[in-house]
Design a protein that fits this description.
Number of helices: 8
Largest sheet: 5 strands, parallel
Structural class: alpha/beta
CATH architecture: 3-Layer(aba) Sandwich
Distance between the termini: 44 Å
CATH superfamily: P-loop containing nucleotide triphosphate hydrolases
Strand order of the largest sheet: 2-3-1-4-5
Helix content: 40-55%
Number of strands: 5
Order of helices and strands: EHEEEHHHEHHHH
CATH class: Alpha Beta
CATH topology: Rossmann fold
Strand content: 5-15%
Radius of gyration: 17 Å
C-alpha cells in the first residue's frame, strides 16, 4: 500500500477524511502518523515521505467561520510557513488569506483535489489512485458517516465564536482578497456565495 497524505487547510474536514479512509481499510493518523499515512493540514506542500497526496477542500465561508477558533499555537505555525499571513490583520482577513494560500500550497503537490462535500463521488478515483480494487459497499458505509464530527462546536467555550459571516462580510473586510477567495472557490466548483 502506498504511503498516503491527505492535506488542505485546517477546518476542511480532516477528521472526517480519516474516518472515510478507515472505511477503505487504511489506517491514517489525524495529525500524526498512522500505518498507511496521515491526514494533516500542517503538511500542505509536502512531498517527501508520501507516495500519494490528496488535497481536500471545503467551502471558504465554512472554513473562515471555523477559523475563528484556531489556537495561537496554530496561528504561529501558519505565520511561520506563510509570511503574508500577519497577526495584525483582522481575523477575517487572516482566515481568508489562510484558506486561499494554504489550499494553493496543498494543491501544488496533490494528485487529486476534491471537495469534502463530494468525497463519496470521488471514492472510485481515490481508490484507483491508491491501486485498490473497488468495493461498491464503501459508498453506503461512507455515506453513513457523520460529516461534521469536529469536537470544537460541541465545547461550550467555542459556541459563540463561530461568526455568522456571509460573502459580503468578506468583501467588506478586504475586497481584493475576497475576490481572490471567490475565484479560487469557483475553481473548486463552489457556488452559493450569497445569502
Amino acid at each position: 500500500m502506498p504511503k498516503v497524505l491527505i492535506t488542505g487547510c485546517g477546518r476542511s474536514g480532516t477528521r472526517y477524511a480519516k474516518d472515510v479512509f478507515k472505511v477503505l481499510g487504511l489506517d491514517l493518523g489525524h495529525e500524526k502518523a498512522g500505518r498507511d499515512g496521515t491526514v494533516d493540514w500542517h503538511l500542505a506542500g509536502t512531498k517527501e515521505g508520501y507516495d500519494v497526496i490528496f488535497h481536500q477542500v471545503r467551502h471558504p465561508l465554512d472554513v473562515v467561520r471555523s477559523c475563528h477558533t484556531i489556537s495561537e499555537t496554530s496561528w504561529t505555525f501558519i505565520k511561520k510557513k506563510d509570511k503574508l499571513i500577519k497577526e495584525y490583520h483582522p481575523i477575517v482577513v487572516r482566515c481568508m488569506n489562510y484558506w486561499l494560500r494554504w489550499n494553493i500550497l496543498a494543491e501544488s503537490t496533490a494528485v487529486l483535489t476534491y471537495r469534502v462535500e463530494d468525497v463519496v463521488d470521488y471514492l472510485p478515483r481515490i481508490t484507483s489512485e491508491l491501486g485498490m480494487d473497488w468495493n461498491p459497499n464503501w459508498l453506503a458505509q461512507v455515506s453513513a458517516l457523520p460529516t461534521n464530527n469536529h469536537s470544537r462546536r460541541k465545547r461550550k467555550k467555542y459556541r459563540n465564536r463561530y461568526p455568522d459571516l456571509e460573502f459580503e462580510d468578506l468583501y467588506e473586510a478586504s475586497p481584493f482578497l475576497a475576490y481572490q477567495v471567490r475565484r479560487k472557490a469557483e475553481e473548486y466548483c463552489y457556488k452559493n456565495f450569497e445569502k
